[in-house]
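Anyone up for a design puzzle?
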């Protein structure tokens, strides 16, 4: 579908890509991986046409559409959420307007034999076919389903995009891209702004997408779930294998061992050849052999080996001061913002050495509870911090709080004390800031580099309770491994809010699920939690609170319910499930009838020369709109049914 042939791109004399060649095929699911700065984003920009290669060619067949979502982009705030999302359907809306105009002209026509009349009939038929191909019969339902899947609620639909944070506005751009249904989707770190449920929804969407996908991600679980092909950029070259990320890394390790052996053999050959040349350079009897060996070295294709940062594995947090057995104890903690209830009657006890994960949808109160623990918010109820507890906090926006005018070295030097000040460059090197990187100003660093720097600052403080809110956003896989290993070895207590399943796996021993303004404890790791919930993923972690059509009063009841349902409550839930199933059956009968009627009209309209009922065009449009509305009712009814079933299991 898209081919790159010997593509090279250079910046300031440095070749970021050298003779890169590969093919993006129909229905490919490609994971693009490599170290920070390897050229992953640059390659996406080349494919999307944002950048031009220094040499080589990129061939995209005529008519092939490419959609690109960068990590950061300029966002506009001129529309409501629905209005902005509707921009994805510009062609559809234009066609719909043309169809409406043609229907009006045809219904008012007098001369049914004229060329003008027949041309309009032909054009109408073509436009209707194009409208159907582009999904015109269901685009509104698709739009709502996509927005709900990405975490928005129906109550958000008429809000101005200016009211949303940058992360949520990036979700709007992602929704627009997915709804345009390009032939090739290019995604650069799409999970950075998503919660666990939205990530799972996106996984399912991309796996079944009828097109090709090329994505850059540092989320190992996401890559493994979506991609069946891995492209790695290393030392300017492309390695391409038809396997997911984990299988690729195993294959790569095997290849590295083979390559290291070949590298050592080549180095030995080069050393021996150079010794021969040096020894016999000035002997006339050996001149021919010397010149032959010199040419041999000149022609040699030298093996390059990418260095591994094994030093990074040695990083660890300083020994924490000893605290009491109970680190935190919360009783009946409740938090409201005005009339909006976020948390209701939360009870929580954290003991020394616990490693805890907070998981759930965005907006369910995870960060709010973190801020309450840090005593940054007022609340009702009680929260006691244990004896001699020293808290270290990493916020989602921690990287943005750094002083951009300081250098990397000075950023650490200003908080370092004692012997640590003599080891700052060693510490920076272990966290992948090597050589001249230490003298860069913070303002020129990437998001991932800033996050690593903020984490170093935290690791230098002697604390016994670490509270981390989405610490892995913008970190590459290597940096995440460094942090994860350090947290596993940390003898203190850890509370981490994260959507990264691989990061949590093997690190936490307790999961708190945030749902309906309550929390529920699950002992064990993150995948034990998934197995216990009988889920293959965290998709069902939380039903979107605005997706079920449940009234505010019913939501309030759900939010205040205890850890289980009473007998009477279970009876009520069962009645509601039966009612919802009956409603769905009735709607499906209506859909079947409407589809039958529309099929009959389609058959009539396929032979315009035999159409003598001019009102059929107007009735046809009415029936299609009625079908779209009924399909929406069917989706809402299914969402409500799932909501009641989840409540039954809660």
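Challenge accepted. My sequence:
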């Amino acid at each position: 579908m898209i081919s790159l042939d010997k593509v090279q791109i250079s910046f300031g004399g440095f070749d970021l890509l050298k003779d890169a060649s590969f093919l993006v095929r129909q229905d490919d699911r490609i994971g693009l991986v490599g170290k920070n700065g390897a050229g992953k984003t640059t390659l996406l920009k080349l494919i999307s046409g944002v950048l031009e290669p220094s040499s080589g060619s990129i061939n995209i067949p005529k008519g092939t559409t490419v959609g690109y979502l960068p990590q950061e982009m300029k966002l506009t705030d001129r529309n409501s959420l629905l209005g902005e999302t509707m921009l994805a359907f510009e062609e559809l809306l234009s066609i719909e307007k043309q169809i409406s105009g043609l229907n009006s002209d045809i219904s008012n026509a007098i001369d049914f034999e004229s060329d003008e009349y027949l041309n309009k009939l032909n054009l109408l038929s073509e436009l209707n076919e194009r409208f159907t191909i582009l999904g015109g019969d269901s685009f509104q339902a698709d739009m709502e389903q996509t927005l709900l899947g990405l975490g928005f609620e129906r109550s958000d639909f008429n809000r101005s995009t200016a009211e949303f944070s940058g992360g949520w506005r990036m979700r709007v751009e992602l929704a627009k891209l997915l709804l345009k249904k390009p032939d090739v989707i290019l995604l650069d770190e799409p999970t950075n702004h998503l919660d666990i449920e939205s990530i799972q929804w996106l996984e399912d969407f991309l796996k079944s997408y009828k097109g090709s996908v090329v994505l850059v991600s540092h989320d190992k679980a996401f890559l493994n779930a979506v991609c069946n092909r891995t492209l790695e950029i290393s030392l300017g070259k492309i390695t391409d294998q038809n396997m997911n990320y984990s299988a690729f890394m195993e294959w790569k390790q095997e290849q590295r061992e083979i390559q290291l052996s070949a590298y050592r053999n080549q180095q030995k050959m080069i050393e021996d050849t150079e010794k021969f040349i040096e020894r016999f350079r000035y002997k006339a009897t050996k001149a021919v052999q010397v010149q032959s060996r010199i040419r041999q070295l000149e022609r040699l294709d030298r093996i390059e080996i990418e260095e591994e940062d094994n030093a990074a594995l040695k990083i660890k947090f300083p020994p924490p001061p000893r605290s009491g057995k109970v680190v935190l104890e919360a009783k009946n903690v409740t938090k409201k913002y005005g009339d909006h209830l976020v948390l209701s009657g939360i009870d929580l006890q954290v003991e020394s050495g616990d490693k805890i994960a907070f998981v759930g949808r965005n907006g369910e109160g995870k960060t709010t509870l973190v801020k309450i623990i840090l005593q940054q918010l007022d609340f009702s109820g009680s929260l006691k911090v244990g004896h001699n507890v020293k808290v270290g906090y990493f916020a989602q926006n921690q990287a943005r709080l750094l002083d951009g005018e300081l250098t990397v070295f000075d950023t650490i030097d200003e908080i370092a004390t004692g012997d640590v000040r003599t080891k700052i460059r060693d510490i920076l090197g272990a966290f992948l800031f090597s050589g001249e990187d230490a003298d860069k100003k913070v303002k020129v660093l990437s998001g991932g580099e800033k996050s690593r720097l903020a984490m170093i600052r935290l690791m230098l403080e002697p604390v016994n309770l670490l509270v981390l809110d989405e610490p892995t956003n913008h970190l590459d896989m290597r940096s995440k491994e460094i942090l994860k290993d350090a947290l596993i070895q940390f003898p203190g207590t850890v509370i981490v809010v994260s959507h990264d399943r691989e990061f949590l796996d093997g690190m936490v021993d307790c999961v708190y699920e945030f749902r309906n303004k309550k929390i529920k404890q699950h002992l064990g790791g993150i995948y034990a939690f998934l197995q216990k919930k009988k889920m293959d993923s965290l998709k069902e972690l939380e039903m979107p609170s605005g997706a079920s059509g449940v009234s505010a009063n019913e939501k309030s009841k759900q939010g205040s319910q205890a850890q289980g349902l009473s007998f009477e409550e279970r009876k009520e839930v069962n009645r509601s499930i039966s009612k919802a199933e009956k409603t769905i059956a009735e709607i499906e009968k209506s859909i079947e009838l409407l589809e039958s009627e529309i099929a009959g009209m389609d058959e009539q309209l396929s032979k315009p020369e035999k159409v003598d009922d001019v009102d059929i065009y107007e009735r046809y449009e009415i029936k299609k709109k009625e079908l779209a509305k009924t399909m929406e009712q069917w989706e809402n009814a299914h969402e409500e049914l799932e909501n009641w079933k989840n409540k039954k299991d809660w």
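A detail worth pointing out: The chain has a mean pLDDT of 81.
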